[in-house]
Task: inverse folding
């Protein structure tokens, strides 16, 4: 696939419009990126994901960048690269990581972003920064609301609408003020106007996958809502989406949190690292909204616009309605108990499904 073809088939006015939107990013030369990252030195490596490694770098003007370098060159990876660049070039929002540029020389494919000095939410919740406890409650609330607003933009304001498909803690980056920047649209899928969902091969990360998506490959905005619900529970509790209890048993964060919510034991859910310093009403909102987002039935999940309002405490009646949902009734708790565990218990099933669904990749209107 010719990456340039994404940009060559536009009319003059389209081009002008694009130039206006894209004026803040540019093409980098490989030489420039080699110089910025000290030849992709191991010491500059920030981490590694599905696409390849990410390196810290500094440009000649002193500005800091993060460079994502494609691991293996293939048509599929080339496609993902093109998708990520095409999507990133379209989106501009205070809570979405914006593109600084790209490089496509020979078989090298690189994407250049602003460097986020506070790295990812994952590194603070479970990784190298977790012991420093830099995420106080107010930062967590700002991150939760900010990342929800970024996803609202993708779902409702971007044209065409975008499903992220890989909402998770490592894809929420934090700027110097701990403001959330949702990253990684390489997995995203554009939704044509009028389509309700897109049938596609399963991508994403176990523990965050909505059951209907993991099993049937049905991607829609509500899959992102599900993943975001898991992220909210993670932000509140500091727990991972899936916990290994012993060699054979795993428990999803929803299976753990739901019974506690039913019994009103919110203080047992909150991250102990907060040492009791949190706003009770806000914690309740984050946890209850997180669980309803991660409901097994997609139609029970709120939209991301509602999620933002609920988190801000602006939809009091809707919140009471959610609290009274049968899922939160003691003894008959159901709704989100088997989502993550189905995905987790059936790793093989998911990957088999992945291949199967790939065959019928098409848009369902
Ligand atoms: N702009 C950036 N600034 C700082 N750190 C970044 C930046 N972009 C990515 N990282 C970090 O680099 C690491 C690798 O990122 P990458 O997106 O490749 O993988 P991932 O998010 O772990 O998995 P996936 O491939 O599923 O997205 C992550 O820890 C991520 O937080
Ligand atoms: Mg990522």
Result:
């Amino acid at each position: 696939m010719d990456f340039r073809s994404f940009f060559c088939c536009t009319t003059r006015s389209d081009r002008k419009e694009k130039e206006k939107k894209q004026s803040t990013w540019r093409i980098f030369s490989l030489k420039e990126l080699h110089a910025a990252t000290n030849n992709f030195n191991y010491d500059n490596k920030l981490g590694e994901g599905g696409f390849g490694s990410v390196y810290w770098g500094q440009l000649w003007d002193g500005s800091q960048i993060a460079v994502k370098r494609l691991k293996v060159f293939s048509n599929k990876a080339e496609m993902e690269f093109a998708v990520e660049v095409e999507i990133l070039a379209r989106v501009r929002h205070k809570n979405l990581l914006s593109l600084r540029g790209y490089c496509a020389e020979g078989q090298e494919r690189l994407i250049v972003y602003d460097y986020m000095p506070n790295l990812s939410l994952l590194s603070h919740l479970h990784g190298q920064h977790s012991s420093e406890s830099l995420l106080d409650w107010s930062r967590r609330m700002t991150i939760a609301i900010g990342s929800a607003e970024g996803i609202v933009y993708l779902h409702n304001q971007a044209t065409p609408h975008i499903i992220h498909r890989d909402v998770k803690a490592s894809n929420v980056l934090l700027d110097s003020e701990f403001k959330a920047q949702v990253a990684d649209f390489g997995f995203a899928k554009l939704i044509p106007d009028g389509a309700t969902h897109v049938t596609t091969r399963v991508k994403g990360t176990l523990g965050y996958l909505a059951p209907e998506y993991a099993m049937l490959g049905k991607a829609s905005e509500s899959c992102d809502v599900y993943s975001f619900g898991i992220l909210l529970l993670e932000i509140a509790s500091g727990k991972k989406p899936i916990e290994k209890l012993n060699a054979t048993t795993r428990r999803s964060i929803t299976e753990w949190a739901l019974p506690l919510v039913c019994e009103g034991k919110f203080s047992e859910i909150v991250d102990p690292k907060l040492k009791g310093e949190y706003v009770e009403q806000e914690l309740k909102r984050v946890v209850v909204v997180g669980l309803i987002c991660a409901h097994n039935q997609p139609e029970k999940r709120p939209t991301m616009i509602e999620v933002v309002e609920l988190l801000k405490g602006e939809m009091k009646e809707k919140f009471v309605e959610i609290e009274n949902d049968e899922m939160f009734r003691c003894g008959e708790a159901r709704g989100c108990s088997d989502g993550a565990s189905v995905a987790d218990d059936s790793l093989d099933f998911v990957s088999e499904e992945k291949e199967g669904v790939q065959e019928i990749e098409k848009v369902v209107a």
About this structure: The first helix runs from residue 5 to 8. The pocket of magnesium ion (ligand 2) is lined by residues 49, 170-171, 183-184 (CB under 6 Å).
